[in-house]
């Protein structure tokens, strides 16, 4: 009996130490919704690319070395920003709600480190994508966003749930694989940011949120 109580005390101490060093109020539902937003954004991008006859992979590949129309670049960036903002707002609201429920502070040292370590690789990746567009290498933009997003997840995972690391690794590998299929970037982008997030969010919901 005393041995069981001792193990329970050890477990509780480990949980307290983990809570103090990691932000654990990420919501699984917000991951699912982020995936849904990404799929909607991919559908809008698909329509826009069709208007420029770029959705056919071979046509897209052939036009890769040619400058892309400024209007199309602006539209695709606008779609990406709207998707990202919708995912961030939803994730923030649901994380605040979960943090209140578990009596955890939403903005503390752990969450600050999480945000900094997540957005730093993402910012570098965004700048690198602009460089790719500048040199007419737009076929690599989708792959680059997948790889840098994966690196951002890996970099931030030590300050939140460990499962984020595995999702990041999956994104990096998937992004590297997509570099071998130039012209199919939108499909890889939709599967990565859409289906990966829905799968991960569902997994996190059943693993943590339903407790």
Automatic annotation (TrEMBL):
<feature type="transmembrane region" description="Helical">
    <location>
        <begin position="72"/>
        <end position="94"/>
    </location>
</feature>
<keyword id="KW-1133">Transmembrane helix</keyword>
<keyword id="KW-0812">Transmembrane</keyword>
<feature type="transmembrane region" description="Helical">
    <location>
        <begin position="139"/>
        <end position="157"/>
    </location>
</feature>
<feature type="transmembrane region" description="Helical">
    <location>
        <begin position="23"/>
        <end position="47"/>
    </location>
</feature>
<feature type="transmembrane region" description="Helical">
    <location>
        <begin position="164"/>
        <end position="181"/>
    </location>
</feature>
<feature type="transmembrane region" description="Helical">
    <location>
        <begin position="114"/>
        <end position="133"/>
    </location>
</feature>
<protein>
    <submittedName>
        <fullName>Uncharacterized protein</fullName>
    </submittedName>
</protein>
<keyword id="KW-0472">Membrane</keyword>
């Amino acid at each position: 009996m005393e041995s069981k109580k001792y193990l329970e005390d050890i477990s509780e101490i480990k949980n307290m130490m983990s809570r103090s060093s990691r932000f654990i109020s990420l919501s699984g539902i917000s991951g699912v919704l982020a995936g849904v937003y990404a799929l909607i954004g991919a559908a809008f991008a698909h329509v826009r690319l069709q208007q420029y006859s770029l959705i056919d992979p071979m046509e897209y590949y052939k036009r890769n070395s040619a400058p892309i129309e400024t209007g199309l670049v602006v539209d695709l960036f606008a779609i990406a920003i709207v998707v990202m903002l919708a995912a961030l707002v939803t994730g923030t609201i649901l994380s605040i709600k979960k943090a209140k429920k578990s009596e955890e502070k939403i903005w503390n040292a752990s969450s600050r480190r999480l945000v900094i370590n997540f957005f730093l690789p993402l910012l570098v990746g965004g700048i690198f994508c602009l460089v790719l567009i500048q040199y007419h290498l737009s076929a690599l933009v989708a792959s680059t966003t997948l790889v840098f997003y994966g690196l951002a997840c890996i970099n931030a995972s030590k300050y939140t749930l460990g499962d984020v690391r595995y999702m990041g690794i999956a994104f990096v590998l998937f992004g590297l694989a997509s570099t071998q299929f130039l012209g199919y970037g939108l499909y890889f982008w939709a599967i990565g940011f859409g289906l990966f997030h829905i799968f991960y969010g569902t997994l996190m919901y059943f693993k943590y949120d339903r407790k």
